[in-house]
Design goal:
21 helices; globular; disordered C terminus; General substrate transporter; transmembrane
Length: 448
């Protein structure tokens, strides 16, 4: 916004470094706070951690809203990031834990749907306020963030506690009441309670809980979850969302209003796609969604990079091809990685390490998110094609990792996911190949 630039810069423009810092400051503190979120939610509950995060985020948004200097704006963004780091991990764990097995994917996609509605709303709110000639144009969006955060902080404690958390802390009678409030049938609740009692570990301090993440049988799941959460951002999605106006302007839509409209359309597409996935989240496999989605978004990014590198973007057809491919990327991401990555990171862990592992994965997500947010404008200033080749390569690498190391967990209860990790996909493929070789005749082996 020109009003924002004029308020914080005497020259009326902000350097790529300042722009990247303004966007990414929130992510630095979020990554630190997300590490604390898991152990904290194990102690004070998921809902109270969400509420605490909402209070902190509201305070940060209020500071940003009242900013008169860049220093104050950075402080506000940093405080808001700490709040976001607290509540986002707790929300993910809470949503996974309260869902019955048959609806876990659908409930997880509902959380993502609300996120995307917020993103799309942000685009159009900014599009509406950009025409206000005063600083209200950029203060109003920050003020709205503060109001919404207060609503979250007040509403979260009114939700029932996670029954799995209640059992984990020994409050079994309250867990039964919570299951009833959530509408989970008694048979499913009883089975879950029994499995959780077998899985429950002795109370330990934070350091002991952290070491649990890297014990035999758990370390691969932790590494996989952290890798997937990091690569979700390395796909370039936040480079597209944060800097959509810049990307569309680079592709030929130079007017501010056209750029904001194009960004808003991206947000609407994400909302529509997420609504569509609601009906299939528990029918499509987690592994197949990661593999198909990775292939689509990786290929789209590589093609965009190729268009820029070959200078085909100098022609109108090339520029519009880039716009179309960005939308292909957005659709591919919204129907796959956006939905299942956080669900996978949380559901593959046993109860005793779920919150801590989800927090660690979210921390990796924030760190990569910050790197992308800070470096994207600098990278684009030096190379139009480089960022797209990098994002595409990361997505395709993740696809290969999912093929080799990610078992299918759709339809398995949270307490039965151990069975899915008993034999990894790459070992199954190797065993199948060895078996096929053994049953071949000598003549067939000679031919091979």
């Amino acid at each position: 916004m020109s009003q924002f630039k004029e308020h914080f810069s005497k020259t009326g423009s902000l350097s790529a470094t300042i722009q990247g810092l303004i966007v990414s400051t929130v992510l630095i503190t979020a990554s630190v706070a997300s590490i604390i979120s898991g152990p904290l939610s194990d102690r004070i509950s998921r809902t109270r951690t969400i509420s605490l995060g909402g209070i902190v985020y509201a305070a940060g948004s209020a500071i940003s809203c009242s900013s008169n200097t860049l220093a104050q704006l950075f402080v506000g963004r940093a405080v808001a990031g700490a709040g976001e780091g607290l509540f986002l991990s707790a929300i993910t764990v809470y949503a996974v834990e309260i869902a019955p097995t048959s609806a876990r994917g659908r409930l997880g996609s509902m959380v993502q749907l609300l996120n995307t509605i917020g993103i799309a709303s942000g685009y159009f709110i900014c599009y509406g306020t950009v025409h206000i000639p005063s600083s209200l144009s950029w203060r109003f969006p920050f003020g709205m963030q503060a109001v919404v955060s207060v609503v979250l902080a007040i509403g979260a404690p009114m939700l029932p506690h996670s029954p799995r958390w209640l059992i984990h802390v020994g409050r079994h009678a309250e867990a039964q009441i919570a299951w009833a409030k959530l509408g989970v049938v008694s048979a499913d609740a009883h089975k879950t309670n029994e499995n959780l009692r077998r899985d429950d570990a002795a109370k330990s301090n934070w350091w002991q809980e952290a070491k649990q993440l890297w014990k035999s049988g758990i370390r691969l799941r932790t590494a996989l979850g952290v890798f997937l959460m990091g690569m979700q951002q390395a796909s370039g999605i936040d480079g597209v969302l944060y800097y959509a106006p810049v990307l569309f302007s680079q592709a030929g839509l130079s007017e501010t209003t056209a750029s904001f409209i194009a960004s808003g359309i991206s947000g609407i597409i994400i909302v529509v796609c997420t609504c569509f996935v609601q009906f299939y989240a528990d029918k499509w496999g987690r592994r197949s969604s990661m593999v198909r989605g990775g292939a689509v978004i990786g290929t789209a990014m590589i093609l965009i990079g190729t268009i820029y590198a070959s200078h085909a973007s100098d022609k109108p057809a090339g520029r519009w091809a880039i716009v179309v491919l960005i939308y292909v990327f957005v659709v591919g991401y919204a129907t796959s990685w956006a939905i299942v990555t956080r669900i996978i990171c949380s559901e593959i862990q046993p109860m005793r390490t779920r919150a801590a592992a989800t927090s660690l994965g979210q921390c990796a997500n924030w760190v990569v998110n910050w790197t992308v947010a800070f470096t994207t404008p600098l990278f684009l200033a030096r190379s139009a094609s480089g960022p797209y080749f990098l994002f595409g390569s990361c997505s395709l690498l993740t696809t290969v990792v999912c093929l080799a190391f990610q078992p299918e967990t759709r339809g398995a209860s949270l307490e039965d996911v151990d069975k899915a990790f008993a034999e990894l996909p790459w070992r199954i493929l190797v065993a199948f190949g060895s078996k096929k070789t053994l049953i071949m005749t000598p003549a067939q082996r000679t031919t091979c």
